[in-house]
Write a structure and sequence with these properties.
With about 180 residues, the protein is mainly α. It is about 60% helix and about 0% strand.
Length: about 180
């Protein structure tokens, strides 16, 4: 499945524009992480784009989130490792591969970066990793952004600063698409 087909599939399943933008943000993070690790950028980007494809369907049954999406994606030309990453990012199994860990941590960090952009005077364009890291330390800021999950980027042999820089750069590259 190519990126345009995946985006159309995502939009057929998600109606909330905020969820679509979140998926785009995670896609941008995953693409930059893949580049950093010399991995398959298209594959990693698809994992980011499609990771929450079942979110609206499972919002009232969060224990099914990831499972419904993984099952749905089996009907399409999507590799098994992407389907597995979709499943484990929602807590169904342990994250084992670099792609799975990257998806889980990017999912959490992208939310923090969006929250930072909403309070930064210049949104994403002039935001620095230091700004994000400062907000990361403020426990009352963006409480929904799981700091423990974000710190799991250390499992990727990345410092928190490196991880934030890579994802922030990815999101900056699509700032217009994110309306940030």
């Amino acid at each position: 499945m190519n990126r345009n087909e995946a985006l159309q599939l995502l939009k057929s399943r998600l109606k909330d524009n905020r969820l679509i933008k979140h998926s785009l943000a995670v896609e941008a993070c995953m693409k930059n992480l893949a580049e950093h690790f010399d991995e398959d950028k298209e594959k990693w980007a698809l994992a980011g784009l499609l990771h929450d494809i079942d979110y609206e369907e499972t919002k009232d049954t969060p224990e099914k989130h990831g499972l419904v999406g993984a099952e749905y994606l089996k009907d399409f030309d999507i590799s098994d490792d992407i389907i597995q990453a979709v499943k484990v990012h929602a807590g169904h199994g342990e994250t084992e591969t670099r792609m799975e860990i990257s998806l889980l941590t990017s999912d959490a960090l992208s939310g923090l970066i969006v929250a930072c952009a909403l309070v930064h005077p210049e949104r994403l364009s002039a935001m620095s990793p230091d700004f994000v890291l400062k907000k990361f330390k403020e426990k009352n800021f963006a409480r929904g952004a799981n700091r423990k999950t974000i710190k799991d980027a250390e499992k990727l042999n990345l410092s928190l600063d490196e991880f934030v820089s890579i994802c922030l750069d990815g999101m900056k590259s699509i700032a217009n698409d994110l309306s940030l």
